[in-house]
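Exercise 7. Given the encoded structure of a 334-residue chain, write a plausible sequence.
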């Protein structure tokens, strides 16, 4: 069963949490009737939205009803950055968040989006299921957050309202909306574009009004938010892969007690569904886009794009966590 919560209800509840003394880390059995909240920013019909509802259903089933998950999607509880702040204070219990916003907590996370690092989600998951994933768990726990799984935010592509983009030079001079993700900004700057950070909930209107010329997202997001209505040119750049980190607050972890393992298992199962739906949705959406006379889908010269953005990886290896960036790159190529 799925439970929905609105922003007013969330703020009223969270004010009580914030006023309470710090929670002890001692693990106790979850009390009957434990209610927790999951926030995310995806639109209805998006694989993330479907998987979040499935997570709530699985938790109820695996805990015999002892734990209830209220789901708040479509940025009901604020944007990704706001939800991460709430997560760290314990006002929010779970979030299926964006890689870009989450990299403000763990900057190394952005390295998963090195240009043309992963050709598909399966390869990325292979890396995250190994030592790289284990290292990320340690780095997240250091900032008060528990990674439960790595959901898929897809291979990302470029859309715009100006022209067909087939080569890197076609991007030069454009104004492109990116999330607040330093890796994505670096990629488009390397391509000669100006970048603008606009909340995803405001993106359709920004494109419609010409505030920016284009944007980049996985096909599922382009479809569910109907961005193709205001950006008719879709270029299959495949310039990067992104995760959707599925995160839990350490406060929630302490509250769950003996039900913690059941919740972790539910997160993994929901993640498998989300990745499956994401892959299916991409194939379905691409076919629909190709069959829509109002949309122009362009295959690009990916080798040329990879060459034009090669400097980004070298720049990131010079950062304080450059050794870890190199480890991620090596694991991806292995």
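Solution.
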């Amino acid at each position: 069963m799925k439970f929905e919560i609105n922003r007013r209800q969330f703020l009223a509840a969270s004010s009580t949490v914030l006023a309470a003394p710090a929670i002890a880390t001692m693990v106790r059995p979850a009390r009957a009737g434990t209610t927790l909240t999951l926030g995310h920013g995806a639109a209805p019909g998006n694989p993330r939205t479907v998987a979040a509802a499935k997570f709530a259903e699985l938790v109820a089933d695996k805990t015999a009803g002892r734990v209830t998950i209220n789901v708040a999607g479509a940025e009901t509880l604020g944007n990704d950055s706001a939800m991460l702040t709430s997560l760290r204070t314990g006002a929010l219990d779970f979030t299926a968040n964006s890689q870009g916003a989450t990299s403000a907590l763990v900057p190394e996370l952005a390295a998963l989006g090195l240009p043309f690092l992963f050709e598909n989600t399966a390869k990325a998951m292979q890396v995250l299921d190994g030592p790289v994933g284990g290292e990320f768990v340690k780095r997240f726990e250091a900032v008060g957050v528990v990674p439960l799984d790595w959901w898929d935010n897809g291979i990302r592509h470029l859309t715009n309202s100006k022209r067909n983009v087939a080569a890197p030079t076609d991007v030069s001079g454009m104004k492109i909306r990116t999330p607040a993700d330093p890796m994505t900004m670096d990629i488009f700057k390397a391509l000669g574009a100006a970048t603008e950070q606009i909340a995803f909930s405001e993106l359709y209107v920004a494109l419609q009004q010409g505030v920016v010329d284009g944007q980049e997202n996985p096909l599922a997001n382009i479809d569910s938010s109907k961005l193709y209505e205001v950006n008719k040119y879709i270029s299959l750049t495949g310039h990067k892969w992104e995760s959707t980190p599925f995160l839990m607050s350490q406060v929630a972890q302490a509250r769950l007690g003996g039900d913690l393992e059941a919740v972790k298992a539910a997160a993994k199962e929901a993640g498998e569904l989300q990745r499956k739906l994401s892959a299916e949705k991409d194939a379905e959406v691409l076919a629909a886009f190709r069959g829509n006379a109002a949309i122009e889908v362009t295959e690009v010269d990916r080798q040329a794009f990879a060459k034009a953005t090669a400097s980004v990886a070298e720049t990131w290896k010079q950062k304080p966590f450059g050794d870890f960036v190199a480890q991620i790159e090596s694991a991806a190529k292995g």
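Remark. The domain at 3-333 is CATH 3.40.190.170 (D-Maltodextrin-Binding Protein; domain 2). Students should compare their own answers with the one above.
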